[in-house]
Design goal:
By secondary structure, the chain is of the alpha/beta class. It has 22 helices and 33 strands. A hairpin with a 7-residue loop joins strand 10 and strand 11. It is about 35% helix and about 20% strand.
Length: about 800
């Protein structure tokens, strides 16, 4: 058994990259429809873009932090004076992340010896571990990009051809251009094209204005000042695709830049092909522009030699600091506007681009050499999610209306708030209809007995029905308080827009403080009944967002439990004060687990309860499903529990720093990943020891940010029926045979599929999401019959008095 001093962990960024690898694996998996395969490749590309905008700047910056000499990458380093925390948090006194490389995890001594030999000659100012990590990250990304290309060429293009679609990916530019392509170019594309000339440009450092030396010469020769044009300096937009066109201009090398207007014109053009071997051809906009470059240069003596795509990714991080003042919305709005002008973190270029052109381009863009990344002919392949194909998709599963929503169609009206007062209700999206959540807010908006509504909003839908209901509630005289998190990355502008709209409608808007994000998904309605206030509320694992609810697999608990509602009420008061948790420690949640107050302690207590049971020879098991696992104290507690004999199953979709299956440390821990049509987003925590089982659901992942720098909320699942439903769904997920992989101790994704016979009576492999849909559908049918029988004997559904209201 290892001591805590020798516990080790996967690097968080390499772990995330292994998750993105899992996305490519799903794109390559036989049986996935062609449209969905393209979507998975688009998701992979989008994820990688975000990685370069958010994580790569941090990795490159950490490379310059000092570390102790002679420290091996997988040794435990005690932090002394180094401020290495995310978002500028001072982590002094905490243990620095203990990095283990993939090679070290495999037990390879080659890297170990090389690093040790080098370490003896480096000063404490050189961070060898981070330099090695950066190299390993880049190597992993290169391998993933190659796998992406191979999947496209060997799996997806043939699949599309079988479906009658010729996707002209990497196709030769034809000498004879289809008249329909010409018409599309001149009627739609041409209006959005501009060309910038880079060759022989001189930059005036005082005015930052570029002028062409060739036009200056023309002006001197002709005496016409109009030929000496001054133009704004070319500045590539973040993640925008460009073509750099090379050629000879008056005998000298010339370079021109063309922006590809994919947002304005769409990335793909589909043409019917009745006489061809396939039914239709699909061209990328990039190649359609390449077909017409000769008509764009505007210079008769420009001889085109080649065209190559590139794009620049920029640092998207916003530095939130208290000294910026109190106008958080104004500050964020300004910073979001500047995001596209951040430092370059990646210059992604076509690997066919000649070295001389690449270096000229790099210098013109003032891009560091370290940011150069070679790629294929096309970039921004996240656009594959919008590939123009209407068939060859997953079969649609219509959202199920829960039984408690269905019987109202055949019986007198029963308020949803009244039903919540009687019994906890559970919604599992996207399998079940999200209209139940919308109804919760809609009823609150128009019910004359509702006195107040309070809710936290993290990512608001662009056309949010929930926000509109809250505005109506305020206009109808209810006291409405909405906590809007303005720092939700890449949703800041939309959240600011809705915050201002709601404020104008009379809603009280509260923002978080600079150093604290509010990620909790909670709501509270206070309603008068018989002269007393009754509380109803929501605790959810996903955002109050009707758009993401169509693709995110989450659990939403609607409850009137008095202790939980009191906790939410107190937490809302805390949020209104815009204070830090340490200044509000008199708040002691009775049932909720709240990050910053009791969440970490509660989870450690549950893990230790299971550990004690195992040491006493009693059965003990921990089952956890979440998105990310990073926080070291909680990981160490799981390692300790494993060493005590606790059987631990983890379903971790993305980042997982815990190393499973390592003798003497985690041999009783297994980690799985599930990737299918819906994004697994729910956080479920089940602790079973000595016959006592406790379950929690909520918003909290086990990341440093969730535990230390966010307000997260988890709640116990107390209703036996809801408890059984979640247990059954989780069991289905661990039994999946097609979409489940096991994360190995060397950070590999290992398919669970084995054997030659299916495990279901229908003769098909087990699929968790399909079986979850069937399970909830059967459950709704069965309960509908029970509820219809019950409602016949009830004229109304009374609200319990406050004494009868479930206290727990």
């Amino acid at each position: 058994m290892q001591s805590k001093d020798t516990y080790c962990y996967f690097d968080r960024d390499l772990s995330w990259l292994s998750f993105n690898e899992r996305i490519v694996m799903e794109a390559a998996r036989p049986g996935v429809p062609a449209k969905e395969r393209l979507s998975f490749l688009g998701i992979f590309a989008s994820n990688l873009d975000e990685f370069y905008r958010v994580r790569m700047p941090a990795i490159m910056a950490l490379k310059n932090f000092p570390v102790h000499p002679n420290v091996h990458p997988n040794q435990s380093i005690k932090e002394e004076n180094y401020n290495l925390g995310e978002s500028g948090e001072n982590t002094t006194g905490r243990e620095v992340e203990n990095v283990i490389s993939v090679n070290a995890a495999k037990g390879s001594d080659a890297d170990t010896d090389a690093l040790s030999a080098t370490d003896t000659n480096i000063s404490s100012k050189t961070n060898v571990a981070q330099t090695a990590l950066l190299a390993e990250v880049r190597g992993k990304i290169d391998g993933l990009q190659n796998r992406f290309g191979l999947t496209m060429l060997t799996e997806i293009l043939p699949d599309l051809a079988m479906a009658g679609i010729d996707f002209k990916y990497n196709a030769q530019i034809p000498t004879a251009i289809d008249p329909r392509i010409q018409a599309f170019f001149f009627e739609k594309v041409a209006a959005n094209l501009q060309m910038s000339w880079l060759e022989d440009q001189q930059i005036d450092t005082q005015t930052d204005i570029i002028s062409d030396t060739d036009t200056q010469t023309d002006a001197q020769a002709t005496g016409k000042e109009g030929h000496n044009k001054k133009r704004p300096r070319f500045f590539p937009e973040n993640d925008q695709i460009y073509l750099v066109v090379s050629g000879k201009l008056s005998g000298r090398q010339g370079l021109a830049i063309i922006r590809i207007p994919s947002v304005e014109c769409g990335r793909f053009v589909r043409l019917d092909n009745p006489r061809g071997r396939t039914k239709s051809d699909v061209w990328l906009l990039d190649d359609i522009i390449r077909m017409h470059i000769g008509q764009l240069t505007g210079k008769e003596d420009f001889v085109i030699e080649g065209s190559y795509s590139f794009k620049l990714s920029r640092d998207a991080d916003i530095d939130y600091k208290d000294e910026y003042g109190k106008d958080l919305a104004g500050f964020i709005q300004k910073q979001v506007a500047k995001r596209n002008y951040g430092l370059a973190t990646r210059l992604l270029y076509d690997q066919q681009m000649p070295e001389a052109i690449l270096q000229k381009l790099r210098q013109a863009l003032n891009c560091p050499k370290a940011a150069l990344v070679s790629g294929g002919r096309y970039h921004n392949l996240r656009d594959l999610m919008d590939f123009p194909i209407s068939q060859h998709k997953y079969e649609k599963w219509p959202a199920i209306r829960p039984a408690f929503m269905q019987y109202r169609q055949q019986a007198p009206f029963v308020s949803l708030l009244d039903q919540i007062a009687k019994k906890d209700l559970l919604i599992s999206t996207p399998y079940q209809d999200y209209s139940t959540v919308l109804r919760f807010f809609n009823e609150a908006a128009i019910d004359p007995e509702v006195r107040s509504v309070a809710v936290t909003l993290y990512r608001i839908a662009p056309d949010s029905l929930i926000a509109r209901a809250l505005m109506s509630a305020a206009k109808n005289g209810k006291a409405v308080t909405v906590f809007v998190e303005l720092k939700a990355r890449f949703d800041e502008a939309n959240n600011i827009k809705w915050a201002r709209k709601m404020k104008a409608a009379g809603v009280k808007i509260v923002y978080s403080i600079w150093a604290l994000k509010v990620h909790a998904k909670i709501a509270l309605v206070k309603r008068n009944y018989a002269g007393r206030l009754h509380y109803s509320g929501i605790v959810a694992t996903g955002n109050f967002n009707e758009n993401t609810a169509r693709i995110y697999a989450d659990h939403i608990l609607m409850t009137a439990d008095k202790a939980m509602m009191t906790d939410i009420e107190t937490l809302m008061l805390f949020l209104e004060k815009r204070a830090r948790p340490e200044s509000y420690q008199f708040f002691q949640p009775k049932k909720l687990l709240v990050a910053g107050f009791n969440l970490q302690t509660a989870f450690l207590t549950e893990i230790n309860r299971c550990k004690r049971a195992a040491l006493e020879g009693q059965p003990a098991m921990i089952t956890i499903k979440l998105n990310n696992l990073e926080e070291q104290k909680l990981i160490d507690a799981l390692y300790d529990a494993s060493n005590a004999g606790v059987q631990i199953r983890l379903m971790v979709r993305s980042i997982c720093r815990l190393i499973p299956g390592k003798k003497g440390m985690s041999e009783n821990i297994v980690v799985y990943r599930l990737v299918d049509r819906y994004l697994e987003h729910a956080r479920v925590f089940i602790f079973d020891a000595a016959g006592k089982q406790n379950m929690y659901i909520g918003s909290a992942d086990w990341m440093n940010r969730n535990v230390y720098r966010r307000i997260e909320v988890c709640c116990p699942v107390l209703d036996p029926e809801n408890l059984r439903t979640i247990l059954d769904i989780v069991a289905l997920q661990f039994a999946d045979q097609l979409h489940l992989v096991q994360l190995t101790s060397d950070l590999q994704n290992k398919w669970m599929l084995s054997g030659s016979e299916a495990s279901t009576q229908e003769g098909r492999w087990r699929e968790a999401q399909f079986e979850t849909y069937q399970y909830l559908q059967a459950q709704a049918t069965e309960k509908l019959g029970e509820d219809l029988t019950a409602v016949k004997s009830e004229k109304t559904v009374p609200v319990p008095s406050s004494d009868e209201n479930r206290q727990g």
